[in-house]
Specification:
- With 488 residues, the chain is α/β, with parallel strands linked by helices.
- The longest helix has 17 residues.
- The protein has 16 helices and 20 strands.
């Protein structure tokens, strides 16, 4: 079930929110602590779905400003008037006995750190005449979420586990798979019960919450950035299109040494990695494809034949999209990169991957970087030319590929030191910038003004997802199809 939290401060507007929420949820939580003058009778008369009443103290993440006695009176009144569920904290549950048919949700909240002695707290809550036990705590990584996951499927008393912030999505998805009674969602953006809470539309459209069941296979996607959310939206769309009972699990990986154990415990056999873990994952991976081995970076790992295999899809997606753009520009040349000079701005692992791909396609490399030592080593690795940033104006290039971030000065009044500035760009250039995919960068905006040819960052992003989906499922969804989904 999905429980939408009603967080308005006005009784009248709370009723409107309840009306709008009813078609989209199975349960509504009325946050009495958010209401300026709670009118329980009015709110219960307006219910179209079962109601859970809570009145949270500041130490539990709420906004109650009255006395504790007044708070407990409101909770008793809600039970007397026949609310479906009432949330009671473990330290007051004994003071408020069961009344009528109202079910008791016994909750324990830890706002700043994971719950300690979780099993002990679970047993304590069960002993307080609980119909449902609820835990709320930060779960930034799978290690932090793991103790809460272990109690989600307990047979004694059903358990709801709520993570704080965007990482709480991990518990929402896994809770659905483990048959937790419900997960929480906001009605709309700006109406969250806590910062980072998912909206009901995100649960429905991005995470395909209702289609997840106990037999659903999960694919890990690390990170909680807007980029990762878009990736999950498109991957889940492809999985649904392919009619596979597989969905994405957003997650924070945490300590890489626990990766293998946690993935096996969750039966996750494939993970799409964000930038933070593409090099760290090499501590876990037993086999690397050639490009991943060369650049020492993997953005996709698959568990095959009892081993983790690492793949680098960045270079393929970037180089294929670059080639496609050049073909349009040149009238359909079969090998558009051959003998064309490509300036690579950067010398990190991604730069090594792109250099690998461009050289395989016959391109002529020139390397520059803020870090001249690393750039020199990269140039030696690929037997190509290194040019200091100060000498860029003397370099001819057909294509410009920017990978390395600008250097931000500590003084906010001093602009960042650009690796490739707008004065270098020419209309004849084909420009690709991998720093903010799938969004534009200032460099790309300047290139558009100069009418240079742009390798669209969104197309690079979609091409990469297309390759990752093929690796994860063995089936193909074209980049063109995914592009159409975005427009629909």
């Amino acid at each position: 079930m999905i429980c939408i939290s009603i967080t308005n401060s006005s009784n009248r507007f709370a009723v409107v929110d309840m009306y709008n929420a009813a078609p989209q949820c199975d349960l509504m939580e009325i946050r009495l602590d958010r209401l300026e003058q709670p009118d329980i009778t009015l709110l219960l008369e307006s219910r179209q779905k079962p109601i859970l009443v809570s009145c949270r103290r500041p130490q539990d993440g709420g906004e109650w400003s009255g006395t504790e006695e007044q708070r407990q009176v409101l909770l008793r009144q809600a039970m007397f008037e026949g609310v479906d569920y009432v949330e009671l904290e473990v330290d007051i549950a004994e003071k408020i006995p069961r009344y009528g048919e109202t079910k008791r949700v016994i909750s324990y909240t830890s706002l700043n750190k994971p719950v300690r002695d979780l099993q002990k707290q679970y047993e304590r809550a069960c002993a307080l005449d609980a119909d449902i036990v609820k835990f709320t705590a930060p779960t930034n990584t799978l290690e932090e979420a793991w103790p809460m996951l272990r109690v989600l499927n307990r047979p004694e008393v059903p358990c709801v586990a709520e993570g704080i912030g965007q990482p709480g999505l991990t518990l929402s998805i896994l809770g659905r798979k483990l048959n937790s009674p419900w997960t929480y969602a906001a009605l709309e953006e700006g109406m969250e019960a806590h910062p980072g809470q998912a909206t009901v539309a995100q649960l429905r459209d991005v995470y395909h919450y209702s289609s997840i069941g106990s037999k659903t296979q999960l694919i890990g996607v690390s990170g909680f950035t807007p980029q990762q959310q878009l990736a999950i939206c498109l991957i889940n769309g492809a999985l649904n299109h392919l009619e596979l009972n597989t969905r994405c699990l957003p997650m924070g990986i945490g300590e890489i040494t626990n990766f293998d154990k946690l993935m096996k415990a969750l039966h996750v056999t494939g993970v799409v990695l964000d930038v933070e873990y593409r090099s760290l994952i090499l501590q876990v991976v037993e086999k690397l494809e050639e490009s991943a081995q060369t650049c020492r970076q993997a953005d996709l790992v698959l568990h095959q034949k009892k081993e983790w295999h690492g793949f680098n899809t960045v270079w393929r997606s970037a180089v294929r999209t670059l080639e496609s753009t050049l073909k349009e520009k040149t009238g359909g040349e079969s090998q558009p990169l051959r003998d064309r000079t490509v300036l690579i701005g950067g010398a990190d692992a991604t730069a090594r991957a792109i250099a690998y791909g461009i050289q395989k396609r016959g391109g002529l490399l020139v390397v520059t970087s803020h870090d001249e030592d690393r750039a020199t080593l990269l140039a030696q690795m690929y037997e190509c030319r290194f040019v200091p940033q100060t000498h860029l104006n003397n370099v001819y290039a057909d294509c410009v590929v920017c990978i390395e971030d600008d250097i931000v000065n500590e003084d906010p009044d001093v602009p960042p030191k650009q690796l490739i500035d707008e004065y270098y760009l020419r209309r004849s250039h084909t420009v690709m910038d991998l720093r903010n995919i799938p969004e534009d960068t200032p460099l790309l905006k300047e290139a558009r003004l100069k009418k240079a040819t742009i390798v669209e960052p969104l197309q690079i992003f979609i091409e990469q997802l297309s390759q990752q989906i093929r690796g994860l499922t063995g089936k193909s969804v074209s980049a063109d199809e995914m592009t159409q989904w975005l427009g629909s």
